[in-house]
Design brief:
CATH topology: Threonyl-tRNA Synthetase, Chain A, domain 2
Structural class: alpha+beta
Shape: elongated
Strand content: 15-25%
Number of domains: 1
Order of helices and strands: HEEHHHEE
């Protein structure tokens, strides 16, 4: 990222949060009730709340349903992973090395963890 476009940690985190919400709406059909992003060195943590639809909450009432729900959500992210990675790379100026995600079938909270090729904080103002 060129020095002239340096941003604060808060600006980077807000831009990532906005991109993740956009990704969720465009790729999954709905966004979270709340999203928080934290940039720590070469890692990015995104915490999304309110991710389960009413039908998914019903499905999560059984062990088989919870497994199905987690597997489905994981596959949906994998299918469109390149889109999310491109959005994050554009914001941070660094390549995504890994993307991990899981959803709690109890609380509806989802976490996305990205590891980056570079320490993102080196581009902060």
């Amino acid at each position: 990222m060129p020095a002239m476009v340096r941003r604060t940690r808060g600006q980077i985190e807000a831009a990532i949060s906005k991109a993740v919400v956009q990704f969720e709406v465009e790729q999954m059909g709905r966004g979270p009730a709340d999203v928080r992003t934290y940039v720590i060195g070469d890692a990015i943590f995104v915490r999304l709340k309110g991710m389960l639809m009413p039908a998914e909450r019903q499905l999560a009432a059984t062990e088989e349903g919870r497994t199905l729900l987690k597997d489905l959500r994981r596959e949906l992210v994998q299918a469109s992973r390149s889109i999310l990675e491109a959005m994050i790379e554009e914001i941070t100026g660094s390549r995504v090395v890994n993307l991990f995600t899981d959803i709690s079938t109890k609380t509806g909270e989802r976490i996305i963890v990205l590891t980056m090729a570079d320490d993102v904080s080196k581009w902060l103002a």
